[in-house]
Write a structure and sequence with these properties.
Strand order of the largest sheet: 1-2-3-6-7
Bound molecules: ligand K1U, zinc ion
Number of helices: 3
Largest sheet: 5 strands, antiparallel
Strand content: 25-35%
Radius of gyration: 17 Å
Number of strands: 7
Length: 176
């Protein structure tokens, strides 16, 4: 297994639209294992393949308290959104240190393939519904901050660019 580097916003590659998986084979199962290891180590409750620079429609999620209930979604599709919405304070492993409120459908119905390539369906609410919508946004090249106002997006970009400049300076000092 391997830990995969996670792309950091505003990396342009986060805006790539992922392609459907043509065949669920050992290559995809290896990607799923590496993504799960990367998500648990981060730690996070979800990860989309886009975030590790693989532009295929694969997601891993674990919203359980013990972190022992991995959900693998290959070629996921949301087939129904509730009219009722809910605001949740979201974070993102590709947007370090930024949390903000996003309004999304409070319940969704989802269809996807599992690691064996079998289709399954489920209903999601609560954090699972938020997470599925957040991760499918990643596969469509959208990062959660793009749900926020332009003013907030500008402030976030300024903060992240400053953080990234400072990290580069520290890295340069360490290598000297
Ligand atoms: O897609 C990602 O970057 C993962 C993201 C998923 C997510 C979280 C919350 C709302 C919407 C989507 C994260 O996992 S951010 C980290 C996080 O929420 C968390 C970390 C440790 C324990 C519990 C939660
Ligand atoms: Zn994210």
């Amino acid at each position: 297994m391997a830990l995969l580097p996670i792309l950091q916003y505003p990396d342009e590659r986060l805006h790539t639209v992922a392609k459907p998986v043509a065949q669920v084979d050992d290559r995809i199962r290896r990607l799923v294992k590496d993504m799960a290891e990367t998500m648990y180590e981060a730690p996070g409750v979800g990860l989309a393949a886009t975030q590790v620079d693989v532009h295929e429609r694969v997601i891993v999620i674990d919203v359980s308290e013990q972190g022992d209930d991995l959900l693998v979604l290959i070629n996921p599709e949301i087939t129904w959104y509730s009219e009722e919405t809910k605001v949740y304070e979201e974070g993102c492993l590709s947007v370090s240190g930024i949390y903000d409120k996003v309004e999304r459908a409070s319940e969704v119905k989802v269809t996807a393939l599992n690691e064996k390539g079998e289709r399954f369906e489920f209903d999601a609410d609560g954090l699972l519904a938020v997470c599925v919508q957040h991760e499918i946004d990643h596969l469509d090249g959208k990062v959660f901050v793009e749900h926020l106002s332009m003013l907030k997006q500008t402030r976030i970009l300024t903060r992240l660019r400053k953080q990234q400049r400072e990290t580069k300076k520290v890295d340069a000092k360490v290598t000297v």
